[in-house]
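Structure in, sequence out. Go:
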């Protein structure tokens, strides 16, 4: 039986090796795969930086169309419907083309797509094991970061899975407020991934990334009192980072166990990520105002966050999960005679149980115990009942 990484190598080989056969039928080329992922919920309580309202709501509902264009290209379009503060919103999430036949393990993607920063960001929300992304994702990536740009990546011809990639993006979702002349190419992103198998039962992946945001630094003026709660309230939706800066670093690690390499009946997934964001304000900002870049006598401001997650499928139709996460912001505040750092923080403990009678349907009950500091008043406990149902084509999820 092929291990998870062997199966992934076979898939990559099919996509990145020799061109498709000339006998590729017109029926395949002219009939795109269409899928609809329905996300509905009832939530008791409110979470910071999250787009789900209290009560009944429409979550991240996706309508996707994808197809092989010819023997050289693949294309996909994904639109999203969701409710926010009583209004129904429509957004274009993906619209890209992907090469299929470049030599030497190379691949190109252009259009609108998910950035490959972190483990979760490259995945669709309906494939998550929990109702919402961790707090650090909601704060630093606007829940999930997708943008207009181009990507080139290379998969090494080695037994150990090794991928290198670079991306250029417009950067609007990660842009700081009140920039007069933003750069046309706002985001430069480099990443690398390593992965492999340990016998038949175990597999792993580790990734590193650095995202340079040329438009991420704000330019606060004297007497502008920048409070964290005000930054949160200024944004009307989750798709846009609450906190921006110059450099965003990520380290992620994933471990999976499945007896005999068969994920259908029983498996365990352990994952964790750490994000560090520095230099939120430009050097020409006033160093004596609250929330502005600290003076040379103090450490500069930063934001960071992390999470650890464990999900165990103990039966073919049942899974349980536990996740702990934090998002931290260190802000300098100048008082009458001296200053000090004050912390804004989100701490979350999440527990869920999910019933998934098939690959196409999931019903999830989740409980969150959260502690929020300097970000406004939120409920200490949040309960959510969610369903995610997929109609039509449903490809395999990423590792």
């Amino acid at each position: 039986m092929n291990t998870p990484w062997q199966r992934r190598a076979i898939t990559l080989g099919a996509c990145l090796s020799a061109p498709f056969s000339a006998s590729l039928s017109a029926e395949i080329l002219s009939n795109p795969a269409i899928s609809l992922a329905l996300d509905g919920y009832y939530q008791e309580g409110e979470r910071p930086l999250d787009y789900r309202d209290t009560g009944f709501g429409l979550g991240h509902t996706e309508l996707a169309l994808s197809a092989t264009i010819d023997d050289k290209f693949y294309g996909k379009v994904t639109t999203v419907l969701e409710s926010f503060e009583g209004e129904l919103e429509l957004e274009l999430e993906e619209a890209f083309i992907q090469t299929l036949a470049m030599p030497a393990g190379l691949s190109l993607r252009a259009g609108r797509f998910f950035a490959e920063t972190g483990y979760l960001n490259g995945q669709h929300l309906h494939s998550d094991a929990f109702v919402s992304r961790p707090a650090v994702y909601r704060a630093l990536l606007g829940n999930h970061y997708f943008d207009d740009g181009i990507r080139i990546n290379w998969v090494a011809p080695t037994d150990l899975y090794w991928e290198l990639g670079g991306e250029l993006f417009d950067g609007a979702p990660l842009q700081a407020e009140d920039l007069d002349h933003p750069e046309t190419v706002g985001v430069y992103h480099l990443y690398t991934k390593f992965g492999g198998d340990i016998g038949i039962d175990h597999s792993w992946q580790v990734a590193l990334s650095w995202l340079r945001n040329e438009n991420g630094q704000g330019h606060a003026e004297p007497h502008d009192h920048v409070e964290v709660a005000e930054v949160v309230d200024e944004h009307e939706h989750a798709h846009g980072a609450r906190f921006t800066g110059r450099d965003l670093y990520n380290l992620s690690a994933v471990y999976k166990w499945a007896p005999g390499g068969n994920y259908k009946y029983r498996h365990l997934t352990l994952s964790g990520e750490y994000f560090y964001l520095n230099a939120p304000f430009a050097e020409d900002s006033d160093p004596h105002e609250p929330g502005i870049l600290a003076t040379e006598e103090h450490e500069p401001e930063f934001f960071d966050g992390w999470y650890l997650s464990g999900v165990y499928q103990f039966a073919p139709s049942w899974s349980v999960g536990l996740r702990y996460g934090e998002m931290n912001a260190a802000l300098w505040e100048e008082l009458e005679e001296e200053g000090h750092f004050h912390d804004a923080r989100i701490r979350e403990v999440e527990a869920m149980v999910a019933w998934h009678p098939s690959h196409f349907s999931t019903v999830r009950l989740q409980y969150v115990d959260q502690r929020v500091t300097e970000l406004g008043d939120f409920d200490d406990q949040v309960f959510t009942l969610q369903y995610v149902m997929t109609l039509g084509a449903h490809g395999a999820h990423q590792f």
